[in-house]
């Protein structure tokens, strides 16, 4: 196992004690979750985008990268579902982790790149939605706006992600993957007026689904 993966999966002892989990229980849950994500998203990249301030205490989510599935790079969270099965308020999928995609290939660079910009943007989106998911039921097909200081709101649509019928399991327990896709404001309005499924069909027909890249034209 990669050194970074081993290092970043370890939780602070106080967090484990608070939830009555042993380090062994946490690591087993981590390994099973990793395997479940890879069955759906393809093999993960060995590097993890580790948050300086952990999500559990109000920081950002860690970012996990999947460059070996569909073209481009997948992103996923690993911190919403807990070893006891708790996590986001259950929706029709049950409890879940978040996923998103870019058409860009994974690049590790010391300088800013198009990939690093969308990776940081998706991290911010995942973090906001991750916290919100603990307070509200978020269903596939719903739209959402994230306020941004002195900038237009970020517009999103949710969908269940189970490509080719591949479902997300942690061990023998079925969970869900909630796909988070960024939209143009007019696309979100179209989804609200006509239904998200019709918008998602337009995105698929144009080759934009399930990606959140915004260097494209609106489909409505």
Shape: globular
Structural class: alpha+beta
Task: Tally the beta strands.
Answer: 9
Give the DSSP E fraction (strand runs of 2 or more residues): 15-25%
Largest sheet: 7 strands, mixed
Indicate the radius of gyration in whole angstroms: 17 Å
- Residue stretches low in confidence (pLDDT < 50, at least 5 long) are 1-14
Euclidean distance between termini CA atoms: 46 Å
What order do the SSEs take from the amino end to the carboxyl end, as H and E?
HHHEEEEHEEEEEHH
Report helical residue fraction: 25-40%
Mean model confidence by pLDDT? 90
> Order of strands side by side in the largest beta sheet?
1-2-3-4-9-6-5
Number of helices: 6
Could you characterize what this model shows?
This protein is of the alpha+beta class. Helix content is 32%, strand content 20%. The chain is built from six helices and nine strands; from the N terminus they run αααββββαβββββαα. The strands form two sheets. It has a seven-stranded mixed sheet. A hairpin with a 2-residue loop joins β5 and β6. The longest helix is centred in the middle third of the chain and has 20 residues. The chain is globular. The N terminus is likely disordered.
